[in-house]
Amino acid sequence: MVQTDEELGAWLRLSLTQGVGNETMRRLLAAWGSAQAVFQQSESALRQVVQPAQARALMAVPDGWPALLEDTRQWLQAPDHALVTLGDDHYPTALLNIPDPPLMLYAIGRTQQLPTLTPSTALAIVGSRNPTPQGAINARDFACGLAASGLTIVSGLALGVDGAAHEGALLGAGAHPLPTIAIVGTGLDRVYPRQHRDLAHQIAQRGLILSEYPLGTPPLAPNFPRRNRLISGLSQATLVVEAALQSGSLITAKQALEQGRDVMAIPGSIHSPQSKGCHALIKQGAKLVESTQDVLEELRLPDPFAQVPLALATSGAGMTAEDAPEDALLSAMGHDPVNLDALQARCGWPTAQLQAQLLELELMGQVGRLPGGLFQRVGRA
């Protein structure tokens, strides 16, 4: 971890220098061994390693550097805050093997766990920011079961599937020393999205929140696809719960494949846009999973709950009109989204009775309401 003000200042100055990206910084560090040593070089010496414009930029003090140094120094005084740099003993070894490891990694939470992070004990769970009710339940239940099996669940703290995965991991963690890791696209002095402020605090108490971006970095759109390489890089495999065809989750899956990691996907309704991305991944060779056992088998890990199946629920199949009204309605719905007119045609009930029964099932958590006036059965994963 960063030990001195001089070291901290040099790293921050390097990160703020315009026109100097990660690849250039790695060349500079390879040439002179430390961030401090880079700024002890003459411009002519720097030009032997980088372009003239970059050498000139390195000779100038970046705007905002003194303020960022002071803010970061104050931030690091908290006992659960840390900043590790490339080559540091606490730097996660899992990230050393990805094509573009971050030069600096800010951390909040159980920072003592940073050196222990290995892909073999972590699984990324990602998916839509606007999941179906079933998709959110799948993310939460899979994460809960897999965290209970000893895996660390890695995701991005976004709305939807990411948030549900973090919640599930915390729920199933038990005595797990590191149930979940959130990798974000902002500085760690802010929480984005705001709706996840309480969730972020829970993760900071029981897991880790990581970012490669300096304090004060706002939620800039390009940062989120870029941080996805860290989500996949920290994980043995990536599980995509729901994803549209144009989705950041598919970027994560692509990066996982480029990093030599496995990709798995949960299938869904052929009528749901949120399932199209998962189906495309499965067509391309991603492992189709229907249960936590499928995930553990793919990762070649033992299942401590082998006697308690967690397969996707299929209750309600084969129901008839003689069954309880709610069971008959669930049977008529099937598992695909359906509108009120189609459902009324299937069951033949008066509109008022149908709407009342749908509301009751919705309050019971057995039916979810989708955009466009659609309804869908909700099962437990």
Straight-line N-to-C gap: 40 Å
CATH topology annotation of the largest domain = Rossmann fold
Q: In percent, how much strand structure appears in the residues?
A: 5-15%
Approximate helicity band: 40-55%
Number of domains: 3
Specify the CATH architecture of the largest domain: 3-Layer(aba) Sandwich
Structural class: alpha/beta
The low-pLDDT segments are 307-323
Please tally the helical runs, counting DSSP H or I stretches of 4 or more residues: 17
Structural account:
By secondary structure, the protein is α/β, with parallel strands linked by helices. It has 3 domains: 1-68; 114-298, Rossmann fold, CATH 3.40.50; 325-377, Arc Repressor Mutant, subunit A (Orthogonal Bundle). Helices cover 43% and strands 13% of the residues. The protein contains 17 helices and 12 strands. It has helices at residues 5-16, 22-32, 35-38, 43-46, 52-59, 65-75, 93-96, 133-148, 161-172, 197-206, 223-233, 248-258, 273-283, 292-298, 325-333, 340-347, 351-363; strands at 81-85, 104-109, 122-126, 152-155, 180-183, 208-211, 237-240, 262-265, 287-288, 338-339, 367-370, 374-377. Strand 3, helix 8 and strand 4 (152-155) form a beta-alpha-beta unit. The longest helix is centred in the middle third of the chain and has 16 residues, at 133-148.
